[in-house]
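Task card 7
Instruction: Convert sequence to structure tokens.
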Amino acid sequence: MNEQGDAWSKVSRSMEKQLEKCTRQAIAASRLAADVPAADVGSSACEVVLKKDRMRLLHYLDGPEEKNPVPVLLVYALINRPYILDLQPDRSVVQSLLKQGLDVYMIDWGKPKHGDRFLGLDDYIERYMDDCVCAIAKRSGQESISLLGYCIGGYLTSVYASLHPDRVRNLAVMASPLDFGIGEGLLHLWTREEYFDPKQVVEAFGNAPSEFLNGGFLMLDPLGNTLLKYLNFYENIEDRKSVEMFLRMEKWLSDGIPVAGAFYVDLIRDGYQKNLFVKNKLRVNGGRADVKRLTMPILAIVAEKDHIVPPSSTLGLLDVAPSKDKTTMSYPTGHIGLSVGGGPHRDLWPKVAGWFTNRSLPAKETR
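Output:
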């Protein structure tokens, strides 16, 4: 066969393989449409140990019988549901920590109603978080516990730790906006004082609507969050596990909740616009959130491809905190990938669990 004939033969075989793949994908798509798998989420066994207004404190029951004596409290953002940290058994931050012998709690903030529009940072820190920390300390017999804050949850935990350092044994922040003065990222640009007034949102809606918030996140990466996402889904439509994971993520993305109006104003005005916390000027419930009190061990976890929270915003906490035990862990993934990616659960989360364990010796040994 001459060179031209051989080339045409290769093209023909390639086209045949592509046609076979397209046929299989079409069949898989038709079967999926007829039998959509259930998108079960948050499957780890837990009990509700505290309820206050919309907030619930969850205690997870799985894991070894002998657990580390210092509990870990997971604090997620007030945007979207916290089950992103327990999306499915093999992609669960909760399970990753439980398997390493940690005693895990998580705050479910609940869905604020119109009457909750006056809840501000003071309420979430001093009414809800403080009640949770004190309840966990009492249940565990510990004077202080560990905190792990994700996204805005990292802002909440850092502020709480600066107000109540005696109650926080270890502080970990994950993809958290903390230094808002870095000048990076679209959110930092869009929320600048000359462009945006959060009070207008609250005056119009009461609470910041989930549709408004999620629309903003979508526009941070419009192509990746629309066309490319669905092309990737179709490319992997023959993989049942990939399909189930996609459906769980879609369920979480569409399960948004509003943010209490007063807190939304506090976050945008005092955080994104004035950067009061790292400037050591933030006041909560009449007291100053003093970053100089952050002397406990601190872990900063960042996503190298994060388009929502630039890594430098999270790492800015380490520049102002006087702690002598500061650790940084990073992974080449995106904001959500830190909590649900296969790579982070294989490589990153065992290290995070080890960081907590190594800094959670029994009180007598610590002294």
